[in-house]
């Protein structure tokens, strides 16, 4: 399977302008900004009509079907369907950016390609973040999380979103990868800037994003050169060995980009989940008390936060042929998004789906918040344990914690979502 089919039907050079009407909605007369502000309300209303939301948008001088799936079952089917593919590189081309450092990250990345190329790029990292590996690291992760929280205890207050959830996860990942302490701020800062390239950013920001993407590539190249000569990181040693063992061997650019992708895929997703978890639990004190008194509820709180406010709104795909998802036939050359927001509040699966309840037991064995199929999240075990250890640390070290200004708000219908500040007092 290749992405060639997309290029056959779309000449991206024909239209280099952004298309504002891509954002228009025809089922309800509601602006994208309104959908982003109250996504759950709109999905609940749309679901009353259908679990597939159809739109046709005019893009690149042609009509493209855009479908959004709200049912858990259809989303699962889409993500494992053999006749769909990723289209990030094409998306950037449609927006008028056929080449450049950001496009270079996409072209050489793991989330952007399918089939054998994808498998080759994923393989060298596949064994590094499995649950058994992360379980072995759990005592170190516990220490890391607590070390990060402790300095704030004396201060008596904290903005969880910006002071803990934004800084702890990328620092932890750097320490697992083996990025030297003195480089962490530089690397994380660049990754944060480049990650804007994963959104539908205003094209005026292209220069800054490209500069960050180019600097990241340069940094990882130097990091791996140092590792080859006098490296101390077990993770990087193993990664380099695995990258040269796949057939054909990963190119230098491919080797650098998979490491960068880890940071791009993890920082905001984990930040949002940690912030939402603390905020949702403190907003319903009984559930916080339950968890504080009995650590057995911490796992349920992690799963429920991920269900109730998933940090990734949609997983989009492009259809390479006509496909059938249950009773729905979707034509070839359409964009179809699995709405994780919709799927994770699907009343067919979850009792009282609009209620945040850490004692619920109706979870699937594989949580759909991490996607499905070949592109299922590589870092799910790390993310899950990070959030688990964070809740455990806050419950133990800050027994009197409360929200200062009310709960955080989580917005966004698609892509990586946004979360507001979350001030707490200890
Ligand atoms: C709560 C935190 C996280 C959530 C909710 C999350 C969610 C997801 C989802 C939904 C996908 C699939 C996207 C798609 O199929 O279109 C994905 C892919 C990915 N995630 Fe995560 N993620 C999280 C944390 C992490 C962490 C901590 C890492 C790395 C250490 C990571 C690395 C990746 C990578 C590399 C991919 C691409 C996999 C591929 O294309 O084969 N994620 N993630």
From TrEMBL:
Identify the Pfam families for this entry: p450
Q: Known InterPro entries for this protein?
A: Cyt_P450 (IPR001128), Cyt_P450_B (IPR002397), Cyt_P450_CS (IPR017972), Cyt_P450_sf (IPR036396)
Q: Which of UniProt's keywords are assigned here?
A: Heme, Iron, Metal-binding, Monooxygenase, Oxidoreductase
PROSITE patterns named among the record's database cross-references: CYTOCHROME_P450
State whether keyword Chloroplast applies. no
Q: Which domain of life is it from?
A: Bacteria
Has UniProt tagged this entry with the keyword Cell cycle?
Answer: no
The entry sums up its family as follows: Belongs to the cytochrome P450 family.
What this protein is called in its record is Cytochrome P450
Species of provenance = Sphingomonas qilianensis
